[in-house]
Each structure stands twice: as C-alpha cells, then as structure tokens.
Amino acid sequence: xxxxxxxxxxxxxxxxxxxxxxxxxxxxxxxxxxxxxxxxxxxxxxxxxxxxxxxxxxxxxxxxxxxxxxxxxxxxxxxxxxxxxxxxxxxxxxxxxxxxxxxxxxxxxxxxxxxxxxxxxxxxxxxxxxxxxxxxxxxxxxxxxxxxxxxxxxxxxxxxxxxxxxxxxxxxxxxxxxxxxxxxxxxxxxxxxxxxxxxxxxxxxxxxxxxxxxx
Length: 215
Description:
Elements: E1 4-10, H1 20-25, E2 31-32, E3 35-42, H2 49-60, E4 64-70, E5 77-80, E6 82-84, E7 111-113, H3 118-127, E8 132-135, H4 142-156, E9 162-168, H5 172-178, H6 186-214
Helix pairs in contact: 2-4, 3-6
C-alpha cells in the first residue's frame, strides 16, 4: 500500500485575509514521491485546532503528518525541532481567546521532539535554492499548540505516524501591506512542502527496510 501524508495549514488570523499555509496546501499535488496526500485547514483556535487535527488524522490514517503555519518576520523556512507544553498568546486567537502561561496538555511532558528528519530536509531545501534552517522555538501561539498536540497524539496515545511542523514566511502581498517584512513566493512555499514530504517519505522507507532486516 502507498504511504499517506496529512498536511495541514491554518486559516487567516490577526486581521489578515490570507494565510500562506492554507494557500500552499491547497496547491499540493495529490501524489508526491509515492505519497498519497491528504490536506486539512485548521482553525487558528486553541480550543478547536487540535480537535480538527485529530479528526483529520482519524480520517486519513497517515504515515506522515506535516503541520504548516505562518511565522511572520522569519526570513527562511523553519523546520521546528521541539514543541513545548505552554500556551502564551501575544494576540487573541480567532475565538477571541488569549491564554497566558497555560499548558497545552495538563500533566503532559514539558516538551516533545519532532520525528521527521529535519536536518536532512533542511539540507535538501538548501540544495534546491530555498533558505531554510532548523528552528528550536515554535513560539507559544496556536502553531506550537498544534505541534505539541500532534506529537502528544503520537507519544502518549499510540497513533503510528511521524510528525513535525514547518513555519513559513509571509507571502509577498502580506509583506507589501505590512512594510519591511521578509516574504517568500507561494510557488516556493509549495515546492518546499513537497521537498520536506519527499525527504521524510524516503527516510521512512529506509527505516522500514532497516527494521525488516533486523527482524
């Protein structure tokens, strides 16, 4: 059976009319490097985002989950290494909520690490001419909330997928409106997501092959 990937983005927030993450996933091919691609748009909401994510995972039954979100002000594609168990919002979410110093999951671990091959992904992105780096902070807004919830589903609830989070810059039209902000074209963002998925799929297949040899 073909491997499956779920790729999520977010709806617009903070007064914007567009979110590059949902715009990008809407342009993904249905198959990438042998992966069957499923997509879902998550609400920029602390209360509703993880519920929507869990429903999408239940429906798709993916081998890989890549969540994508906007990080305005960043100049490069950021593959996140770690999600932390904290909600600490600088602005209100789309439900008007602004939690401060609250856990994502009560009683959960302080942090989770991604299970995607982020350094290999960064290397391939750079080879493709795209600015990229490993990031050690996914922030404390809804992006981190979703990243933590994702890895908690895999870590404590036994859902069998490899997961991670990609932060992307503004689109040029957002940067033009805001002024003096870095941006990246939608075409390049879509290409970056496809590269991350292809590298993650290849590394997963390599791991399965190695596990088969050991067993």
